[in-house]
Every structure is written in C-alpha cells, then in structure tokens.
C-alpha cells in the first residue's frame, strides 16, 4: 500500500496525541484530533464538550441500553444521541480519508477505515508512572487519584471501542505498529511511525 | 534500562523467529529458539519433538485438568509432565537471562522475565495470506488446510500462554513493540527492534 492515512489510538497520557501531531508536522499533512471535534460540532450542532466526553468514552455497556430504554430507541425510531454522534464521526472520518492524506487520533478511526489499503494503524501505551507524570505536566490535569482517573478513562475507551467495533481495544493484531512510549520514548515513536509509513506496501519477506 | 535481553513472541508464520535470528546476528549475541529446545532436552531428558509440541502449545484448558485427573497431579504429589516442562523452561530462561545478553523466541519469555528492567519484549503478527505463503516457502510445511492449521496453532499458543501467565497473548500492553510483518516487512521490523533496543531506557518525553 501507499500510506495516505495514519490512525493513532492511545492510552490516556501515553503521548499518542503528541506523536500524531509530530508525525503530521513532519509529513506536512493535517492532524485531526481537536480539529475533528470542532468539525463534528459544526456538522452536528452538538457542543464540543459533549463530543469530547461522548465521542470516545462510554460509561458502561449498560449506558447504551439505558439510552434505548429512555424511548429514544427502537420504539420511537430515533437513534439515541450517542449512536447519532458515532454515525456523524464515522461519516466525517470516512470523508476526510477520502479527501486528503492526514493523521487521525482516536475515535475508532482504525476500525472505520479498516477497508482502506492506504491506512497505517498505530497504538501507543505506557507505564502508569509515565502517564501520571504526563497527565500533570503535559495536560495540566490534577485529579485527586491520578491512577484511578487513568484506569477509568481507559476503561471507558475500551467500552466505547468494543461497543461500536465489536473488537477488543489494544490487541496488537488490530494495529500495524504498537509501542510503549515510556520505554522507547516519544521521539523514537515518531520516527518508528514515519519509517513504518514509508515501508508499508513495499514489504518483502 | 539498558537492553540486554530481547524476547520475541509471534504468530506462526509471521516471521518472528527470523526477526529474532537477524537481530541476534546484528548484535552479535545468541538467539535461543531451537537451541533452547535442545538445551531443555538435555536438562530434562525429554525428547526434542515432545518439547517442541508441548513447550508452547496446549490443546485446551481442559487438557491441563485432564493431566491432573490422571493421578499425576495433586494426589500423587507429582506434577504433570506439561507443568514440569514449563518449570524447566522457566528456570533455563531465567538462567540464560542472568548469564548473557541474548534473544529468546517464544516460550512465555516476556512473562518469565517480566521483573527484569533490561528486557525488551516484542510481538509480531501478519495477515493470513502472508503467513500461509511463508508456511509453504520458509518452513516447507504443506498442511491440507493451511488457514485452519495456522488458526489452530495460534489458538494453542494462546491457551498455553493464558494458562501459565494468566495474561492474554497478543495484547499490545504486554510488549514494548509489536508490528505487522506483512505490511511493514521483515527487514524493517529487524531495524525497528534494533532501534527500540538502543533507545529503551534513554526515553525522554
């Protein structure tokens, strides 16, 4: 394949977003992360804060059932807001991939673009200490219990991903490249993604 | 950390073993794969063919229970042969890691050496077509149904790994680096492992 799209999935605080941004800068292509949220907000009319919280995270599998049980589901023929948001994101991500080379961070993009042969899927994770440190230093967040905060956020991403893709989040076989940023370092991870994007398709045995 | 040990886990036919051998050659250190089987055979008195088949693969979780139920288990105070083999492998892998820098292919080495800070854990996987092709060309094996053969072998590795480590085989977070050899190519994967081994420990943010 000729890599045009790079998707970046990541544990919270692993630095995956930073890697996505740096890779995009090096390639001179856009990185869709916060810009994606703004785009979804414009097209859906939903608040950015709502999209941030509901476009990648799900409280639990029960939350989806609860949405349906409120009568916004099958009976009324209207999709619950979480499903509507997913569909809008889904369509925007497919349109972006069709239109231009780009990096897309999160939001099940690896799954949404799974039929494309020009897409390199990556996943980043890190040790808890590294993530807690980044949470504080890079994101400026100071939750009461950082470890619990990070575990909870991961669990919600996992639930969201499982619900909409049927796949398990973080399984190596779903990605072309995964790396531990706390051991390899963010700088090297940027280089690894660039090398992988260059090599993909010309792979020999 | 200062990487001294590199463990290579892999889907059958992904080329992980080849990557391990090439990395070891480049670093001028031994690669323990078939050599490990021979070493285990010498120390255990078991046949190499038995070790190959039972040192990484398990029919099913029930097979372990069946072993116990044969009376070689708790009642007699003697461990079933599969557990004895695991313990011998476990001890040999720990001794090797203590003694010298090396690459170790398979056999739950990532888990066995999990307490070491000088160990880089990698995992390789590939698309089915690539693996079937390698099965035929690189290993010279011609099973009647190659796809079923590969699925079965993976399933047995997964069962074995789960039984002895309690972890899920192939989850990205268990490894410092994972890659799809069919998309990135074996040559690049060798370079990625070498770069990761060099960088590990000096990781910055």
From TrEMBL, chains A, B:
Cited SUPFAM superfamilies: P-loop containing nucleoside triphosphate hydrolases
Keywords: Kinase, Transferase
GO molecular function: kinase activity
Keyword Kinase: yes
Protein name: Cytidylate kinase-like family protein
Organism the protein comes from: Victivallis lenta
